[in-house]
Every structure is written in structure tokens, then in C-alpha cells.
User: Fold these one by one.
Assistant:
Number 1:
Amino acid sequence: MNNVDLAMAATDAGGDPDGEVTLDPKVQESIGRSLRAHYDDIVNSPVPDKFLVLLAQLEATEHRAAGASNDERN
Amino acid sequence: MSATDFKDGLIKEIPNLRAFAASLSGSMQLADDLVQDTLLKAWGNSEKFEPGTSLRAWLFTILRNTYYSLYRKRGREVQDSEGTYAERMATHGNQESHLDLADFRKALAKLPEEQREVLIMVGATGLSYEETAEICGVAIGTIKSRVNRARTKLAELLSIGSLDDLGPDRHSAAAIQKVASEVAGT
């Protein structure tokens, strides 16, 4: 059981304030695993180049702006 | 924090931003538009980020606000016309979970947004309950309650397939038991 599962289990052990159903720990674990499988599948997929290009452009623009203001001061 | 450090921080968070955005919008294409908007806003407001605090939590707040103000409606339209990403996205990697990933994504997409987002944040992103509460602007108790409801509803959806199939007793012990026995049988 990892930390996330423990955190979720601890939440349930704390009672359910709204009188909701408390799920079987095995069901909770299964949902937790699937949740991370879903999320990690996307996290581990390749990042489109356009994001890196965008950030490089933003950084270059900022450098140019900084250079321009330095020129003005000098 | 230098512009380069900030940029490197953003680059590291892109995979998490995409996964959260896809979970919210139900579409990988919308997710990438949403991530792009988020990166632009983050860059333009970089002076508001406090070094030493969680960049992920800060970026998730921007992404979430952007989604609710601009993308929510588009997300619904895409889901209506093209089906959700859950049904269309190719999955890769090994699937150790006994639940089929595609089935799980369909069920996840059926959760109310307010439940889905907290379940993802608490259950998959590594954000704490406290951070999640701050991002959503609600109390921690509300987050815990939403997580509980989300998991209960997922268990129902995964065991029966459709809410429409459920009788008036939504919290039927039999439905829960079915999932439990499937888990035990794996």
C-alpha cells in the first residue's frame, strides 16, 4: 500500500461525515491503482514539441526586452 | 528566480498539466490547448509565483480557473460530438491494474466535474488534501467528502456499467459486493 492509498484509507477511517457508504478497502485500492494508471499513462506520453518551442520563444522575447531596456539605460 | 529557472520549472510540470487537463476536459486536444493557455498565463504572471511554494499547485490553479472560465462548454461539445478522449485515446504501457484502462476512463468521465477533479488531484497528482482544497477554494472537509462520493460512484459505474441500470438504491450493497468479489478473484 503506498502513501496515496494510506491517505485515502485514513480518510475513511476518520468516518464519513455525510453518512456515505464506505467502500471495501480492496475496491478503494483498485480504484486508486486505476486512477494512477490513467494519469501516469498521460504523464508518460511524449510532450508535443510546440510547448517547448513556445517557452523558448517566450524566454527569447524576455531576453530581448531585457537587452533593450539595458540599452536604454546605457 | 531567473526566467530560465522558471522556464525549466514549467517544462517539468507539462506532463502533469496535460494529464490534469485531459482529466478535466475529457479531450487530449482540448487538454493541449488548455496547457498552452496555462503556460502563457503562468509566464505573464511569473512575478506572482512565490519561490519555495509548489509550482504544481500554482499551475493547477491557473489551469483549473482557465478551464472553468473558457473551456468547460467546449469540453461538453467535443464530448457530445466526438466521444470522450477516454474512448478514442490510444493507450500504451503495461496495464497492471485489473480494471481495463479504457473502461475506467469512461467511468471517470461520467463523474461530476467537482468530484472528478478532486479525485485526480488527491489520488494521482501527489497534491495534498490541503493543496487541493486551496486550489479549489473550498474546505478540506469538502474535498474529503467529494473524494468519498467520487469513489463510491466509480465503484457503481464500474460494476454496473451505467447509472441508468441502477435501481433506486444507488448504494446497493450488492453492487459494491460485486466489485469486491471481482477484485478478490483477480
Number 2:
Amino acid sequence: MSGLARRFTGMRAVLRREFHGYFASPLGYIFIVIFLIASGYLMVSRDFGRFLELREANLDALFSYLPWIFVVLVPAVAMRLWAEERRSGTVELLLTLPITLEGSYLGKFLAGWAFLAVSVLLTWPAVFQVARLGDPDWGAIFASYVATLLAAAVLLAIGLLFSALSKNQVVAFILAVAASVGFLLIGVPQTQEFVGKWFGGYVERVVSSLSLLDHFETLTRGLLQLNSLLFFVLFTVGWLVCGMLVLGQTKTN
Amino acid sequence: MTETDHPDSVPPAVAAETEAAAPEAPPSEATPPETDGPGEVLISVADLTKHYGAIRAVDGISFQVRRGDVLGFLGPNGAGKTTAMKMITGFLEPDLGSIAVAGIDVAADRLAVSRRIGYLPEDAPAYGEMTVEAFLRFIAEARELEAADEAIDRVLETAHLRSVRGQTIETLSKGYKRRVGLAQALIHDPDVLILDEPTDGLDPNQKAVVQDLISSLSANRCIVLSTHILDEAERVCNRAVILSEGRILVDSTPDALVAQAPGHNAVRFRVTEGDAAEVAAALSAADWCAGARVLPGGEVEAEPRDGQNRLNDVLAAVGEHRVADVRVREGRLDELFRDVTRGVAA
């Protein structure tokens, strides 16, 4: 077994268990229903997406609000993953099986991500409608789905870290929501303006380059730019590594 | 259980013959040659130390456990039993000292060690939302067992769980939950079983079931279990280690401990004709007698100085008094336990 594969020993078993776990309890179904209602509402609402009023054959009305829905719903997907293991003591069982900490951590992440992907792909009726009513830019729609999944990955990695940090699911949830909101707020124009005014243009550009919303928007326009893709990948990996370090400290408490 | 899925069950003589007949046979990776045969050291702990902040949870303990041993960790709460077990399984890293399981250093290769150990953590944690069978299937998958179905069937049978295989674990009684924990620890038929308080919190019937189960598992394995129930150590273990404040105070057999216990072989009887106090005084005067007294219920108890059975001496000393209900008492482990552990606390 190669060194890397060995480092992630047990990942598959954890991934399968956790993924099935979402559908073994009502939580998963409730999540999907809430997600679809919320995204559908924001898409057609006159105050937000205005899909019906704009009469354009694209899904910007859907995708541009997904990060804000994720800010609340992704921490809900993540909160259980480690907090529950630590509260019930099963973390001791898990990490004395031939499963590495990294393997179980990544397995849980991938399970949550796969579950979010299922939820996101259930928005297909919107795509179907746009295709029926007009001639959409398929490249942009594909890129938007990629961007949505990448945004979900970053926010999930944040949620997982707080789940590893707190035994209490509610605390993990609240901290993850706060951190995710903070992460998104970096990208809103008001923040950038404020930063530019007080710290100058250079800092503003740095902050703007750290903006999830900006990179998300770039991708949803259909531009699969390398730096935006890298932004999501690097931040996801970064949060995952931090989370693993945190869990290494908290697993025995 | 067949011999093919448990190579270590081959008797030593047969094993020796097999080796002689096929000297070129490559040694199997899973069972290094030096760990074959009964009686070999399966757990070796040296100078194990662990601090939690300023508290020394485990303070330089060393011991070895061989195949066939059922070692009971006894000790009051907070004595370091659980911490020591967590370090053996690799869940906790020791501050100092080394642990080898089946010849493998835990610090160097936790994964290899975890494949040799079956572990029941305290309170038998399990995923409550899963059914018994799905849970065992997860464990089998995590352990990468090839014949998972057979293994699951076998442990469902061993732990008497067939009737609840389809139930979710959170709906089970404590006794069943504990057996689910044992079943998952046994699924890969490990050489080493680490059981942290396997009967704690169970009712007497459930306790008996779990104890019988553990006894039935002891052949050809090495089992380390912690308990603060001393009867359990007497029933299940052939070796007892008393821990207190992180140190080993006694490492002996339960029988030897009973013999050392205060009041072992004390003789008790009722005086039916005559004065009990007079009899007690006469007994106290004998040189073999450590002391005799009248108990609150009116009975007389005479304790031998050397812990030997002195029934004949007692009957001789009683003289013409008439006595009844004569019996020789066994030492009580809990009294010894209190004596030994109090000495440390004081």
C-alpha cells in the first residue's frame, strides 16, 4: 500500500456509512426539502431572483443566491459529523479501528459533499424549464453547477472544523454559520469599499482576491478560471487540514 | 470456528510438525513466526506514563500479558485503568514508555496493532441509529474482512444477538448494547481483547450473561478487562492487577489475592451452650490466633495469624462449650482491595 493510500485508510467505509446515514434519518430529507423550497423561492421571488420578471434563459436567479442558502444549510449538514461522534464516544471506537484520523475525516467530508451534490442536482427542474422556454448557455449552467459544488465544499470544510471543535452540535452549527457569513461578507461591495477607504487599494485587492463571492461569480459566468478554481480547492484543503489538526487535539477530551 | 480462520488454534505439537514438514513455507505476514503458539507474550507494556495536566493518570506501569491470560485491571475510579487501556489500543499517546501488541510497537504502527486488537470502549459506544447488522457490517468493512457475512453470522451467534439483528441499536437494552459492543470487538477474531468495564451498569442477569461470554472467549486469546467489581475478577480472570493512582500495587492471581485478604480462613460459629465472650477470650490466647471477637449478631469469629485453615485448632480450643453453624470464611477481595488502595490514598 502506498504511503498516501495508507494515510487515508478506512476512508471508504466511513464515507459509505455517513452517506447512508443522511438518508437513514429524516434529517437528510428535511434538508433537501428546505433547500429546494428556499432556492426555488429566492429564484422566483420579486425581491430576489426575479426569474419570471427578467424573462432571460439563464439560471443566474438560481445560482447567485445559493451561497447564502448554504451559509445556513451546510453547517447543518456538517454539525453532526464529528460533534456527535465525540458526544457519544464512538470516536474512540472509530479511531481504534484500522481507520486513520485523516481517512475518517476525509470520508466524512466526502459523504457530506456527496449529499450536498445530490441536493444541488435536484434543482434539475429549473434547468429543464429554462431549456424548454429558451436557449440557455449550457457552458454557463455547467460552470455554475461546478461553482456551486466548490462553494459547498469550502463551507462544508468550515462546518466540519467547528464540528470537530465542539461536542455540542448547536454550538458547532452557530460557530460555523458565523464563520461562513464572515467568509462571504469579505466579498460584498460594502466591505470592499470600507477596506479600500481605510487601508488603500492594495489591501482592497488582496481582500477582494479572498472573496468567495467574487470567485463564485466569475465561475458562474461560465469562466472556469484557474485562479478561481484554485481558490476553492486551496481553501477547502486548508480548512480540512486545520480541522484534522483540531480533531487530533480534541478527540480525547 | 474452524482452524483455517484461526491459525493460532493449532496445538503447539501440530504446529511444530507442520513447520518441520514444510520448512520453506513463507511466513505469513499477518502472523509473524515469533508470535505463534500458546503462552507467548501478546501485550508488553514498559514504563507507561501519561499526564493530564498536572495529574499523573498512569505512572510508570509495566506488565506483560500472555496468550491464555485473562487479566483484570482492578482499581477505584480514576486509578488509571481506562487511560492505560486507551494507550494500549493506540487511541491515546503515552507521554513516556512503550507498548507492543503481538510484537508490534503501537507508536510505530497503530493500524497494524488495531488489526490484532478487539476493543470495547467504556460504555460500549455504538452508532445508535444503525441496526445491529448494519453496524457490524460497517465494522467488517472498516476492518476489510473478506468473508464479512460469515464473520457477522459468527459474532451474532457468539454474542446471542440473532433475535435483534434488525433492530436499531438505540432501542436495545443495556445488556444487548454491551453484547453488540462485544460482537464488534470479536468480528475479526482477534488475539487480543481489551474490554473496558464490560459489565458496568448491567443488572445481575445481564452481568452473568456477559461474564459467561467473556469466559467462553478466553481460550487461546489474551483478554484485558477492567472492572471495579471484585467478584467479577474472581469469576472471569486468572490474573489480577490492582491499580491505584496510576501505579500497580498488586499483580497476582485472584486466588492468591483471596488468600492474602484479611479474614481469610477465619472461623465463625455460634455458641449454643456457654458464654461466647469466654470462648472468644480463650481463642485469643492461642498463639496461632490473630484475634477472636464476638460479632454483633452473637457469633464468634477467630482469625488465624497465618491465613491457614485452623478449624481443628478452633474446635480444640472451644473445649466443652457447645457450638453450632461452624464455617470457615474465605478472604474477601474487596477487603484486601480497600486495604491496599487506602494505603496509597493515605
